[in-house]
Task: structure prediction
Amino acid sequence: MNTHSLNRRAWLCAAASALALGAGSAAHAQTYPTKPIKMVVPFAAGGGTDVLARVIGEKLAAGLGQPVVIDNKPGAAGIIGTDAVAKAAPDGYTIVMSLSNALLTNQFLYEKLPYHPERDLTLVYQVAMGPLVLVVHPSVPAKTAPELLKYVAANKSKLAYGSYGLGAYPHLAGAHMSLTQDADMNHVAYKGEAPMVQDLIGGQIQMAYASALQAKPHIEAGKLKAIGVTGERRMSTLPNVPTLAEQGLKDEAYRLTGWLAVAAPAGTPKPIVQRLADEIRKATQQPDVQQKVATMGFELKDSSPEAFAAAYKAERPVWERLIKQSGAKLE
Result:
């Protein structure tokens, strides 16, 4: 047999293999899902991300016809859980509901991140924006944002602020305040939002950025004091709390908001990614979900894989600049 015939046979075999693989992927996508889906939450149970995951997961299960099991894997600023998903099989049966820190900002903060979010993950759906409320322990004498800035500047090295992970928005915003006021505040990182809020109530830390879900009951009970909210608009669930920007804190750090989103391992077939996105969108359009999310202080997004990718690309340099300005760098 001549060389031409051998090459032609090799080409035909390769083409047949590719077609078979493509057909297999298409068939898999058409029958998906055929077993339970695991939604990893890389933070502790009880926090805002966990609650949102359970709300969306319940509706997603109904839409997909298979159980959605929430798997909390807290620790290391969302790295442990997100890395587990990045290394999972790209078949649509392991996804992550996470925050912007684990899906975007950690790549600028950590020198040795075990995954690269833009290489190892597929963006599925940006579920909600997460404006936060800046709360302080009642012992802090400030009532407004300008008063708080003066207080932290006057108490250099005496105050501590909390976050639910290194590189998360509460860490970056707190670091920015400490830096601009030359306050030298101590940063305390927790494995989740719930333990952070409990320590704030107990007085172990003096201030933190928290979700309305966690903070509102304690604000109403007088156990915490609300200073202001992040982002450009007031929260519908805390309408009497002004934004930090309204109070004169115009810095980029105070106007940004983090977000909550769903991602899957890189290489997950596009039809499966689209099916997940479609079902998540349906879930967010249901009135009971919208009411619950508004109560939590989140703002639902009308998203898609393409819209999420565009928003990610636009925000990426802003977060990168903020982290560089903070001087934060971790191994």
